[in-house]
Design a protein that fits this description.
Blueprint (H helix, E strand, L loop, with lengths): L1 H18 L2 E3 L12 H7 L13 H12 L19 E7 L2 E6 L4 E6 L4 H5 L11 E8 L9 H21 L3 E2 L7 H8 L5 E10 L5
Antiparallel strand pairs: 1-4, 2-3, 2-5, 3-4, 5-7, 6-7
Helix pairs in contact: 2-5, 3-5
């Protein structure tokens, strides 16, 4: 019984430490992506071949801010949302685990120590797990109150997806929007509830030369 209690306390301590692990991101340096919007639109493409080169914290900071970060003092975001419900959550999946992006704090909160990129890739598109980072776009339907709206969530996810495309292009990175993923395994690994809809994912990384 004593051994069981000790094990339980240790397990609880580990979970608590993991839940409290927060990585503060550096301020987004917008000067490193000096490409105009029109140039980014001209060069935007879907990329399905990545090197294993990791992204720096500065690159990830700018990418996440562009995707769905705070761009005004009133807390509104770079991507629009229906009725400003701000239902979209962006999860960051890397070799060292999975994290939830906190736009207001501009920080990452660890939700798992597991490398879930294989679940993001799924069975039929293994190229996706080669990217050093995958961004998961989730609509938290609880933000809509007693009347959930999956349609609004899908629209809001699309805005974030386009932001990721344009930011990645301007930063010299590649990405592709995907709806394919192992939703069941991802929901379990990330401790998602039914109201959190896994809508899209974006592998992001340096483009591998053919």
């Amino acid at each position: 019984m004593k051994k069981f209690m000790i094990s339980a306390v240790m397990a609880l301590s580990c979970l608590t430490a993991m839940a409290q692990e927060v990585i503060k991101l550096p301020a987004p340096d917008k000067s490193v992506a000096g490409m105009s919007v029109m140039e980014a639109l001209s060069k935007r493409q879907s990329v399905r071949s990545f090197t294993s080169q990791a992204l720096t914290d500065s690159q990830l900071s700018l990418l996440l801010w562009a995707a769905n970060g705070v761009n005004r003092e009133d807390g509104r975001l770079t991507a629009p949302t229906a009725m400003n419900r701000q239902d979209i959550q962006v999860y960051v999946c890397r070799a060292d685990g999975a994290f939830l992006y906190d736009a207001k704090a501009h920080a990452l909160t660890r939700v798992s120590k597991e490398d879930v990129r294989a679940y993001v890739a799924g069975d039929r598109q293994p190229f996706a797990k080669e990217a050093p980072v995958s961004l998961l776009v989730v609509s938290d339907q609880r933000k809509f109150g007693p009347r959930p709206s999956p349609d609004y969530g899908r629209l809001d996810a699309g805005y974030v997806s386009q932001n990721i495309y344009l930011a990645a292009t301007a930063m010299g990175l590649g990405t592709v929007a995907r709806a394919m993923m192992d939703r069941e395994q991802l929901a379990k690994a990330l401790n998602l509830v039914d109201a959190q809809l896994l809508l899209l994912n974006h592998p992001v990384g340096y483009v591998k030369s053919e």
